[in-house]
Write a structure and sequence with these properties.
25 helices, Serine Threonine Protein Phosphatase 5, Tetratricopeptide repeat
Length: 536
């Protein structure tokens, strides 16, 4: 099965079918990891009548408003999925897979509009359709934010290249798509830069006249961004706020930057050879590095090599495929720059779902290679055979990986097997042992996890829970006291319980009262209040 043998009308069907086929296993998935707290437990999405409220509400309900993102388009899409299936996970997964197929078809259309030949465009879109790094975004429900934002970014770029729309209408539609992309996920903010990259590919370089010709569109995008930022500030109470990961926030700026540079090698691996995949790239999996360490220099080599590729491409712009190569490198760099921790600290070192948009840049580089080889091989049969093998193997890996995202149990079992060094894998093992009654063994694993990520309050609370089950209330008190009571109800629950175990009922009552101020409907606190005779 090779695209060169397909008629023009069948090429979209080919790549669209690939995008659907490889994710069929995900239709039987349940809710996993963040899907539970962000989707399944969000009572707001269970009634379409709440849509007006959702448009002006934080994305997450389980954290303070100022720490939550603002993603109204994604939240409304969850409400639509809930209405479709009555809360059944399959309805959410059907929408995710459909959106991915739509993004794939838009990408194929964009490549064609940019002047890519039929065969390179089809193969590049096919690789985008089956790329294994997309599994977290497509097979996990909360990954929809990345898929939706990418879909609207691609739609905006495609509309920008349209020759059939009136200029005013075209600009308005592009700006509207930008608003939808931003409302899906903030990472779409890079669209104006990607538009310039697309212009460079289309016009064989960014010329002053080209930039002047696009200024009305860039001005409209700036206005759309301003509207979004005003809405976001109104909802969240702040213009810009980053929910920085605790393990990143405590690092000196220099170490954060050197680790971010080192991580470029991991990003390159995931985009080019995405075989070893993981839902976790936190402490244990990714270790902070300094300038003198080898991983830093590998990442620096990736960065330097990318800059060199751009330089060579710009000097030889007229050569076949050069503009596609430069465009691909710039696309990846633009899409990942703000998420890399290089410029500002972020909520994580890396997540596969955040590479969904960036992976389109790799497909642009595939176009570069095929356009270049077409000048030497006519027809490029060997290249097509090799690509068919890559698409087949990659598609099978994606289908298999989609099944791994079936549930928390399947995901963590895979994580423990592939990356037992991860703090999250160690935490999962410890929690399972505690739940099975093997508390002391569980404490060993939970202790290892805490030692790797000591600034995670939720992880500390899991450890405190195990200490209380083991009857070690004094240690539990020492660990839980620094956890702010407003952060999570378990903070007050566990502190009060440790005091009760020590016979310090008066202090425990004060803790319960304070906890109820933050969480007045928390069942465990209400039970403790009755136990201590202080009422609800």
């Amino acid at each position: 099965m090779t695209p060169p043998g397909l008629p023009k009308w069948a090429r979209p069907a080919f790549v669209g079918a690939l995008a659907l086929l490889v994710y069929l296993p995900s239709l039987w998935n349940t809710f996993a990891l963040d899907d539970v707290s962000a989707v399944a437990q969000d009572e707001r999405i269970r009634d379409l009548g709440n849509v007006p409220e959702l448009l002006l509400a934080p994305y997450l309900t389980y954290m303070p408003r100022e720490r939550s993102p603002y993603r109204p388009v994604t939240t409304v899409s969850y409400a639509v999925s809930w209405a479709m299936g009555g809360g059944h996970p399959a309805a959410f997964h059907v929408v995710n897979v459909t959106l991915h197929a739509g993004a794939t078809l838009l990408f194929l259309s964009l490549l064609t509009a940019l002047g890519a030949s039929a065969v390179p465009a089809t193969w590049a879109a096919a690789l985008f359709a089956i790329h294994p790094v997309h599994v977290e975004a497509v097979a996990g429900v909360v990954g929809r934010a990345d898929v939706l934002s990418t879909l609207f970014v691609l739609l905006a770029l495609r509309l920008h290249l349209s020759s059939t729309l009136r200029p005013g209408l075209r600009i308005a539609l592009v700006a509207y798509c930008y608003l939808l992309a931003l409302g899906s996920k903030e990472s779409a903010v890079v669209l104006p830069v990607l538009l310039v990259v697309v212009e460079a590919i289309r016009r064989s370089g960014v010329h002053p006249k080209a930039l002047i010709a696009t200024w009305p569109t860039l001005a409209a995008l700036s206005a759309a961004l301003a509207i979004f930022l005003v809405a976001r500030t109104s909802v969240l109470g702040s213009l810009l706020h980053l929910d920085v990961a605790a393990y990143i926030a405590v690092l000196p700026t220099g170490v954060r930057v050197t680790t971010a540079i080192a991580n470029f090698s991991e990003v390159a691996r995931l985009l080019v050879v995405p075989w070893d995949l993981s839902p976790e790239y936190g402490p244990g999996t990714i270790v902070p590095v300094h300038v003198g360490q080898g991983r830093f220099w590998v990442g620096f080599g990736v960065l330097a090599g990318s800059v060199t590729l751009v330089g060579v491409g710009l000097r030889d712009w007229s050569a076949a495929g050069s503009r596609w190569l430069v465009g691909g490198v710039l696309w990846v760099a633009t899409s990942f720059a703000l998420l890399s921790n290089l410029l500002v600290p972020m909520p994580m070192w890396l997540a596969e779902r955040t590479l969904y948009l960036a992976s389109a840049g790799i497909a642009l580089m595939v176009v570069a290679g095929l356009e270049h080889s077409a000048k030497r091989l006519s027809p490029p049969r060997l290249t097509s055979v090799l690509l068919a093998v890559v698409v087949t193997v990659g598609g099978l890996h994606t289908a298999q990986r989609s099944r791994v995202w079936h549930s928390d149990d399947t995901l963590f079992a895979d994580l423990v097997e592939r990356h037992p060094e991860s703090f999250r894998a160690q935490s999962w093992i410890g929690s399972r042992l505690v739940d099975a009654g093997q508390v002391e063994r569980g404490l060993v694993w939970l202790g290892q996890a805490v030692s790797q990520n000591p600034n995670s309050a939720l992880l500390t609370l899991d450890y405190v829970r195990a200490l209380l089950l083991a009857g070690r209330s004094v240690e539990a008190e020492e660990l839980v006291r620094p956890v702010p009571p407003h952060l999570h109800p378990s903070s007050s629950v566990f502190l009060a319980q440790s005091l009760i175990f020590q016979g310090r009922q008066v202090e425990a009552a004060d803790v319960v009262r304070r906890g109820l101020e933050y969480f007045p409907s928390e069942t465990r606190l209400l039970d403790q209040a009755r136990q201590l005779g202080i009422g609800g």
